[in-house]
Amino acid sequence: MLGSLFLSPLVDKGDRLTVMMIVNIIRICALLSISYSSEIDSFSTYALIAVLSIVQPVYMSAQVSFLRLITPEDGMISVLRDITNIEWLTYLVGMFAGAMLAGRLRLPGVLALSIAALVLSQIVLFAIKRASIGSAGPVGTLSSGTILDLTPLYPALLAVFLLNVGAGIINVYPAIRATTGGELDRRVLLTIVMANGAFGLLGALSVKPLFASLGALPTIAGTAALMSASLVAMSLDAGLPLVVASSSVMLGLGQIFAVSAHTHMVSSVAPDRAGRLSGLFQCCTYGGVASNGIIFSILGDALSFGKIVLMCAGSAFLAFGVATFAIAHSRISHPTARKRWIRDHPMPRDQLFLLKPTFEDPAFPGKEFYCWHCALIEGVLSAFPSRRTNIEVHRIAWPRPRAELIERLGVDHQSVPVLILDNGSAVPPNAAFVNGRAYIDDPAAILKLLAVRHGFPEPHP
Q1: Is it the case that residue 149 has pLDDT exceeding 80?
Q2: What is the distance between the alpha carbons of residues 5 and 160, in angstroms, rounded to a whole number?
Q3: Torsion angle of C-alpha atoms 86, 89, 92, 95, degrees rounded to 10
Q4: Which of 62, 371, 372, 390 sits at a 20 to 30 Å CA gap from 291?
């Protein structure tokens, strides 16, 4: 919770790929220290585990923020769906392999495998960084604002917290039932976990069509209601088969809820707010799970297991109520309604700055000049007038200072032609950043982007 609340916002101010690589280095160092520790049950080991916990949400926020920076908002559902699918596939493989290797590997061997995986991740991240230098922007160029900028998303964040207050029980429920039923057996627990993982994967696979057909908020509300029903089934305490059924269904629904809620919130903010938003999302998730654990610790001896689970079901149902309230106050939940809203409330467009056709240079008295780069782009705009509808063309005077550019990019960036990109759109790898804005000032790159972003023909090679 501390990492997601206080460290995740820093992601928006730096190079996201670099942040992920730094987190991996911290993880590797911590795991190496644990593996060489003489006493595993020591203060230093717990401190290292705390460090690993703090940096975990930072990595996820950097990952989500980077992907939001290079992905249009309507593509985030596919991106987060794919991430969740990969996570659940590796979870299933890891659990199966862990069960096979548990009797053969001691802790140092397990940690060595984890370190090897992190080293491989570091290599992949380095390759991505080399291939997309500049895509995440230099350190210090983007501002993450404050949590007040995310006020419209507070109902969704509250729904995430309430849902996890109830659904947090899934972390301990299989073990509790197996233990109290006298069936604490490695194979039994592995069966429960593998069944849970399979349904989690199914949920992650089905989230995109549901999201596309129902919209974000109805999907969130519907899964919250169904998860509440699953918790009611758990409270019946009807034996181990119901453990597998109810917990597995709950995990599948949980993936649909989580991916839909995360997508809805991340795609509703500009790329330079995605890290903070993802941190708040994780904070609400961890806070809900922690609250669930506190409830069990305090009430475990005073109330029966079934009654506590019913309380969890009530919290999940409150999440359904909050999401339903948000639907009633939202006009853009469904994709069709969202497109209509965007049509009626146009987003800021790319801004193209060119010099006015003729100008004089005091160094060459009596002569008129034109910028041939600007003239080339002007010719392309004139040849295809129907394709420039989402471009704001500004023609400015040659003499400096050029106030229009200084206002947007600062005094050190007055070169023309320059294309300033819409903050809510995907950013190409060769874009530069200043004052929270992405821009391209290379004429050839501008012509290429006119083709990619606005449907102009491409320049012949």
Answers
A1: no
A2: 15
A3: -40
A4: 62
